[in-house]
Amino acid sequence: MPRVVEVIDDHPAGGRCRELYEGNIGMRVLSYGAEVRVAAPRSPDSYQIYLLLRGAGKARVGGEHVDAPSIIVGPREKSDMWWSVDHEVLIIHIPSALIERTLADHLGDPPERAPRFRPDITRDSAFSGVLTMVSRASAGGRLPFLASPSAGHHFEQFLLHSLLDLQPHDYSAARRGPGAASRPAALRRARRYCEEHAGESVSLRDIAAAARVSARTLQHEFRRHLDTTPLAYLRQVRLAHAHADLVRLARTGAEVTVTEVATRWGFTHLGRFACLYRETYGRSPSSTLYGKRGPRARPG
């Protein structure tokens, strides 16, 4: 993102830029080596977090003065900053898509728009403590976990979830509301997975992986919110698909057996399938498919 930098007073030490982390999130420590005024235009697709490590600074975000050592500038927000001649700043660049994707996991549905955070990150805030921890970890150079892609991924997730949990934004109240916590969101992911993969061989572990929670947590959430288990829910989804197939095939008169429909939807024990079907729909699968006419004999 291009910036307009106005140099007010040079510093003899010169400028420095040190990259700390380059992944989906970017982090670097910057000093222009001068007293500067930095005007950044609106960025439609990213968030910038600035933590002043040394020196003094002032900032305006969206035309409003922000009195805090750290600020966050969101998409479509203009910023205007002044840093003293001896400044050093930690800058974290986060693509807007990452924030929105993480927020969707919290809410259970994609947000209507990118969240707007309160721009000032005060010294006594919990997220300020997270930023301080990151700056201390990088004091000796690049962040120590760069050698491990897995650790880098977990660091990014930690930073994203901490930001959404700890820094106020315009979806904070929705996240705390009924049904908007992360576990119900996991439940929605699990149910959607069951619907989309009902015709496949699916295990409890598969459903839990799709929901992004442990199998134990998933079972607890199904009991709490639906009074059933994940596999029992999957069985009901499969049964509904089998019923829909039987009704459709009965109308078309296609030559197909109940066994073929049942096995298509994962029911290998036909006696159990028939009992479950009768309990749910009040009639046998064969009566749904054939009615009073009964099955037609296939050519030998």
TrEMBL record:
Gene3D superfamilies: Homeodomain-like. It comes from the Bacteria. Keywords: DNA-binding, Transcription, Transcription regulation. SUPFAM superfamilies: Homeodomain-like. PROSITE patterns: HTH_ARAC_FAMILY_2. Residues 188-291 form the HTH araC/xylS-type domain. PANTHER family: HTH-TYPE DNA-BINDING TRANSCRIPTIONAL ACTIVATOR EUTR, HTH-TYPE TRANSCRIPTIONAL ACTIVATOR RHAS-RELATED. This is AraC family transcriptional regulator. The lineage of its organism: Bacteria, Bacillati, Actinomycetota, Actinomycetes, Streptosporangiales.
